[in-house]
Structure prediction request, 334 residues.
Amino acid sequence: MTTPYLEVRDLQTHFTTFGGSRVVKAVDGISFSLREGETLGLVGESGCGKTTTCLSIVGLLPPAARIAGGEIRLAGEDLTKKSPREMRRIRGRKIAMILQDPMASLNPLFNIYTQVSEPAYYHLGIRRQSLRRRVEDLLRSVRIPSPAMRMRNYPHQMSGGMRQRIVGAIALAGGPKLIIADEPTTNLDVTIQAQYLDLLKDIQQETGVAIIFVTHNLGIVAKMCDRMAVMYAGKIVECGSVRDLFGAPSHPYTKALLGSMAKLGSKEPLFAIPGQPPDLANLPPGCAFHPRCAEATQHCSEHEPKIVPCGQDWTAKCWLAHPKESLRHDHARA
Ligand code: SF4
Prediction:
C-alpha cells in the first residue's frame, strides 16, 4: 500500500468571535488521508466544517481563524509549521484549489493567457514560447476550443462552463499533486456539470492528481470519489470507501443523508433530516447529532461516542458502531 500524499491528523481549527470572548471549534479533531490518484469526497450540510478544513490545508484561513492543533502532512512535510511565504510556494505548485464561483477566482482585468500562464511562470520557471505552448496545451486539456485564439479573451467573453474549465486550467498550470475542489459544479447547469465531472476524471487519469471533492451532492460523490468522509458539527462522523458507505452506512447521519437523495422514478416525497445543524458555539452535550437522530437514546445525549473501526479502512463515531457489545447493549437498553 502506498504512503498517503496528504495526511491530516487531529486537525483543530478555531474561530475567535466577539472580541476574543468566544471560541468556535469549526474543525474539531479530524483525521483523514489521501493517496496519489485517489478522490475523497468531503460531505455534510452547510456549516459542518468542510470549507474550513480545505482552507486550513491551503493556508488561506480568514484572520479570525487559527489552527489550534494537529498536523497537515503533505508528502511528509507539516504545513501547519510553514510560514506564509513558504505556503505561497506550495499553493499552486503542490496543492491547487478550485472554488465554487469561477468569477471569484478569475480577474476580470486580465486575459486568459495572463491568468493561466502565471502559475507556470512563477512555480515552474517556464518562459516565452514554451509558456505560450504550455497555456495552449492546458486550455486544450480542459477542452477549450481554439485555444490560441481563446487565450486572448477576457473572462466576461466566456460562458459559465468555459470559465470553470479555465479555473481548472489555472489549477493544473503549476503541476500540483493535490487539487481541492470546493463545490466546483454548483453554479453549472446539469449537462455542463456532467461534462465538467467527466473532464476532471480524465485529467485525474492522465496526471494521477489526488482530489478532495467538497460537496453536499451525494450523486457526485458516487460518480467521482473512491472514499468519503462525512462531517457533522466540525467532526468526521463516518469515513470509508464509497462502496461501503453507500452499501451499508453505519452512522445514522450518513443514513439520513443517503435517505434524502432524490431517487429516479420514485413518487415518494423527499426525506428531510429533521431539525437544523447545531450552533458550533453552543453544541449539545453527548453526541452532537442526538437532537436530530432517529436512533438516539438517553446514553447518546450524555456521552460523546469515540471514533471506532467498523470495517477495513472504515470508521464511525456512533455508539451503535461500538465494538464493545456491552456498550451497544447500554445504548439499546437506555
Ligand atoms: Fe445517533 Fe446515538 Fe449514534 Fe449519535 S451516538 S448518531 S445520537 S445513535
